[in-house]
Amino acid sequence: MVTPKGNEQPSLGLTPLSRVRLDELLQEMLVRVGEVVTSRERLRALLDAVVGIGTDLDLRSTLQRIVESACALAGARYGALGVIGADMQLSDFITHGIDPAAHARIGDLPHGRGVLGLLITDPHPVRMPDITKHPRSYGFPPNHPPMHSFLGVPVRTRDQIFGNLYLAEKQGADEFTEDDEEIMVALAAAAGVAIDNARLFALAQRRERWLSAAAEITGVLLGTVRRTEALRLIARRAREIAGAELVLVLLAGDDGSRYTIEVADGGDEMVGKVLAVDVEALRAEGAELGDVADWPAPVPSGPVLAAPLAGADLPQGVLIVAGVTGSGEDDAALLASFAGQAALALERARAQEEREQLVVLEDRERIARDLHDVVIQRLFATGMQLQGVAPQALRPEAAKRINAAVDDLDATIRDIRRSIFELRAPVGASLRTELRDAVEAATTALGFRPVLDVSGPVDSAVPDDVVPEVLAVLREALSNVARHARASTARVSVRAAGGEVVVQIEDDGVGTDPATARGGLVNMEERAADLGGSCAVSPAEGGGTVITWRVPIGA
């Protein structure tokens, strides 16, 4: 038996060559064990990252955690997640590794050109040792940190590409490895699930806010509805939920081509403006306010949502939400439902107004009936008694005073009849009111106020197409008196009876020659002829001129 001397190691029966081979095997085994340990640690880190990115359902913070986890797993100095918009360009860019000051110096975010656009046009992993040497390299803007090694992977949510995960500057190596790429592909898959969950949660919250606001509006509609107040509440809630700069409620005019701004939450100075709006163009995707209407003030740029106001017996209208931030994918449908609430508010307000008008009309009808059946009959009977007593009066002065009292009673009866017709006229604007306004408007030019006498059911009997002609003739006649007659008094009589309306204007001026009719009189004659009527100019008994304009108005 040979005993080893000094520090000699036992040979274990191996030759020197075998010992070298054994050492290599042991070293390789140690390397493989290290790789296994490293892979295990990276897998654990990947699992931790997957769990970490799904801990919060806020979309923005989820995206930020994905970028941070990717940089930590791949050993990247810089990372970013580019969100792809509807125009297939980067609509958002979440970064890691660049401080805010550097961001400010770099300026605008990238749009997805150059190497970043590779993953947009071809959504497959991209790995390269030097991004600056790629043929599609677009270069970096001023103040951008230098970057060489690059790794990019697409992030999918269901069957759609949500965005791309970009990593740059591998730390401790010249480029990213295949293992880095595999880890990033796995992380991107988990990130897609987390992003989808965050988006669904945000969508559910948004829908809840819309439904809550709709329930609030419904509660308001159950009570007394004031149209403007209800529409203001609807606009305010729509602006809050959509995160918009401006919400408008527009109602179409009679011709349907121009709209009046009824409510403007975020732009009160625009209320009451009348403008032309291309509603169909406004509802198209990507439309902006300035492109489809002659807006009276600067308007916010950005996405616009629009929904029609639809309802029975309603003027055409539209609800517009402009300058939307963080728009949800079903905001258009939710806004359409909200527009239905606005239409319901208009319907309810109109119904309540009609009910209130009906109450007023019923009360006025009762008063008119009492005046006709009671007051006028008593006055008429009193007049008849006075007329019967007058011949028996002993003194002429007494008979004269009795006859004067009878005349006063007749005038009173005429005034009451006129009041009855006014009571039975529609609530709001009426021909009687417009005639009174026209006479009042001519007072300044004439220097005196003409006497106005309206008799008969002019408000109900004169058709709508004749009303403008009557007013135009009255204004023209009073204008002629002011310019040419040099009169001191004038009397206007408008009578609806016998299937026609008669307008008569009499003044005590210098008179006129009917044979030399000027433009104004010719216009009045043409207006009468167009309606199957006539216009006559004659001298007044005591001097002056009488214009008699008459047109048929049916039975």
UniProtKB/TrEMBL annotation:
The GO cellular component terms are: membrane
The UniProt GO MF terms for this protein read: phosphorelay sensor kinase activity; protein dimerization activity
**Occurrences of domain Histidine kinase/HSP90-like ATPase (ranges):** 465-555
User: By its UniProt entry, which Gene3D superfamilies does this protein fall under?
Assistant: 3.30.450.40, Histidine kinase-like ATPase, C-terminal domain
The UniProt entry, under InterPro entries, shows: GAF (IPR003018), GAF-like_dom_sf (IPR029016), HATPase_C_sf (IPR036890), HATPase_dom (IPR003594), Sensor_HK_TwoCompSys (IPR050482), Sig_transdc_His_kin_sub3_dim/P (IPR011712)
Which part of the chain is the GAF domain?
58-205, 226-356
The identity of this protein, by name, is Histidine kinase
| Signal peptide (from-to) | none
Cite the PANTHER family for this sequence: NITRATE/NITRITE SENSOR PROTEIN NARX-RELATED, OXYGEN SENSOR HISTIDINE KINASE RESPONSE REGULATOR DOST
Keyword set, alphabetical order: Kinase, Transferase, Two-component regulatory system
Give a single Pfam family match: HATPase_c
* Source species of the chain: Actinoplanes nipponensis
